[in-house]
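Tutorial, part two.
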Amino acid sequence: MLRYAGIIKNDIANAPGVCVSVFLQGCPHHCPDCFNPETWDFNGGKLFTEDTMNEIINSINANEIMRNLCILGGEPLCLDNDVLTYHIVKKVKETYPDIKIYIWTGYLYEELINSVSHFPKDILSMADYLIDGPFIKEQKDLTLKMRGSKNQRVINLTKTKENGIIYIEKD
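Running the prediction step on this input gives:
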């Protein structure tokens, strides 16, 4: 059963501009001082249905105001959630080809592109930005954009695909 923790329809805190933020349910990392420990339990949250997908799609362009999409967690790219993340990203990109999609993960980009599962690679091929790496309490820095600790990176996936090297955004 695919589950999510919640949806914020007019989020201005997680990424540039106004976004629809979808928080998936379940995380294997359990980082100390995690921002969303309530999303750790894979059996928590709510069941993701076709109505949930429609809510996301309709919220992106509500009142004719285009929003970006953020997918957070929990852990969107773990084996229990990567199928749901793939379907969300695919449906959103089909509906809104020019949308910017941001995904947060505790995994490193290098781990994801070398994964035996094809879903992380397919997701990254459609997404625009990846915020990678586990939250590390000792490296916490609230002044950083889109991340909570200094080890985490904001990877511009569009430029990475174009150049063939990992393009890390600078603050």
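The radius of gyration is 15 Å. In part three we will examine how such features are distributed along the chain.
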